């Protein structure tokens, strides 16, 4: 099928190609220094402990110290700007220039309760043209499951956001109930304002967290202890440390012994949003697709159609759908109406013997508290946002 483009689209297409050619020429000029930096700091994907040790060794050696500080500075700049991929890591030939992300700004009315009606359904419409090249090619466009943007797989490849296994994942899940999140929605850190991002960066610097490194359990717990003491001026309790260890397990679903930097950053971004913004402001972050899925979930649980559900049902919904969309799970519209108790093998159901003994009493008390639609949204909005990334990690572990 041929592709028809207006004169404006043709001009913009030529401009995009010109930008790509200019970027490629710049890459050729920068290639020698890029190669030297890659050879000097190519192990940046190691754990935090390994990175610190290598940094100390190179600092004592002397000559490579300027290059190391330059690489560290570049990592902090990428963190500040919300760039998840370094352009220099790609061959710039035949690639588009990565977008310049603009962080959101808080509005005066953000704290006011938004009007999200249960009865008034919203029409979910995807964009007609690819977000990158602005060309329409019908069924070959892949939609984001969070926002209205659509993409060509070829455009995503040229941007550097689609490689190897991720390409298969997009083609297999983009048109299913599981869905696929685009590079905007996949990065929860882009929800932070400049002020919130500055606060997070100061915390990371204070706790000596190096950007773009993996964190082991000891690294993660040490960080959580420092943050807790900084915020509350007292040590973390044993129960809180156990909860942090459970969160680490949720962020490491493959049991590799460490969590990836992007998963850690998404978790900390959600934590900061919960800390600094009221619930109404978080509700305003939900997209039309997320609101519609929440409506479908609530209506499926409200069997008698009285506008209320039990707290136990709300909790099970949070575990079944709002945490993550696993490939092997059935679609949310089907599974929500058949939510059962958590299995013993589930990470969210693990706990001490005392907590298991108290479970029937807790469930009985929960079922006695009815939850209406506004309360359902407020109690689950953080989990809806945390379910955006494509990663299999649970960026916000629901309580058992």
Mean pLDDT: 75
Q: Compute the gyration radius: what is it?
A: 23 Å
Low-confidence stretches: 1-7, 28-44, 59-67, 85-92, 326-367
Number of helices: 15
Largest sheet: 2 strands, antiparallel
Number of strands: 6
Based on CA inertia axes, which overall geometry fits? Answer: globular
- Beta strand %: under 5%
Order of helices and strands: HHHEEHHHEHHEHHHEHHHEH
Protein model, in words:
There is one protein chain. This protein is mainly α and 400 residues long. Helices cover 51% and strands 4% of the residues. The protein has 15 helices and six strands. The strands form three sheets. A two-stranded antiparallel sheet has the order 1-2. Strands 3-4 form a two-stranded antiparallel sheet. The protein has a two-stranded antiparallel ribbon with strand order 5-6. β1 and β2 form a beta hairpin. α7 crosses α8 and α11 packs across α15. The N and C termini lie far apart (52 Å). The N terminus is likely disordered.
């Amino acid at each position: 099928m041929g592709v028809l483009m207006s004169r404006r689209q043709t001009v913009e297409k030529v401009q995009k190609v010109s930008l790509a050619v200019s970027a490629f020429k710049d890459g050729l000029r920068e290639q020698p220094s890029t190669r030297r930096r890659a050879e000097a700091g190519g192990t940046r994907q190691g754990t935090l402990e390994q990175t610190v040790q290598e940094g100390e060794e190179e600092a004592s050696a002397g000559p490579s110290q300027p290059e190391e500080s330059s690489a560290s500075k570049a990592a902090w700049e990428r963190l500040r700007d919300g760039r998840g991929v370094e352009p220099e890591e790609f061959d710039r030939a035949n690639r588009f220039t990565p977008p310049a992300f603009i962080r959101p700004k808080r509005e005066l009315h953000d704290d006011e309760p938004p009007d999200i009606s249960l009865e008034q359904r919203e029409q979910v419409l995807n964009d007609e043209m690819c977000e990158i090249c602005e060309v329409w090619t019908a069924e070959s466009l892949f939609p984001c499951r969070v926002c209205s943007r659509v993409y060509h797989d070829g455009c995503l490849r040229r941007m550097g956001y689609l490689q190897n296994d991720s390409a298969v994942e997009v083609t297999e899940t983009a048109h299913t109930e599981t869905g696929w999140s685009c590079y905007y929605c996949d990065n929860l850190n882009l929800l932070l304002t400049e002020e919130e991002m500055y606060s997070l960066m100061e915390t990371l610097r204070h706790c000596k967290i190096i950007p773009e490194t993996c964190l082991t359990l000891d690294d993660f717990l040490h960080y959580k202890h420092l943050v807790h003491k900084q915020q509350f001026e007292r040590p973390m309790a044993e129960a809180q440390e156990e909860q942090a260890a459970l969160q680490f397990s949720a962020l490491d679903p493959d049991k590799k012994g460490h969590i990836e930097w992007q998963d850690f950053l998404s978790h900390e971004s959600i934590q900061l949003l919960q800390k600094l913004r009221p619930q109404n402001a978080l509700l305003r972050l939900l997209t039309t697709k997320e609101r519609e899925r929440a409506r479908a979930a609530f209506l499926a649980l409200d069997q008698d159609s009285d506008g209320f559900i039990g707290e136990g049902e709300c909790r099970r919904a949070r575990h079944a759908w709002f945490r993550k969309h696993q490939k092997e799970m059935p679609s949310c519209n089907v599974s929500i109406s058949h939510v059962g108790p958590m299995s013993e093998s589930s990470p969210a159901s693990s706990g001490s013997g005392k907590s298991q003994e108290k479970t029937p009493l807790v469930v009985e008390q929960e079922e006695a508290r009815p939850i209406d639609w506004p309360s359902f949204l407020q109690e689950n909005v953080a989990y809806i946002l945390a379910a955006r990334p494509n990663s299999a990690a649970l960026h916000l572990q629901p309580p058992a």
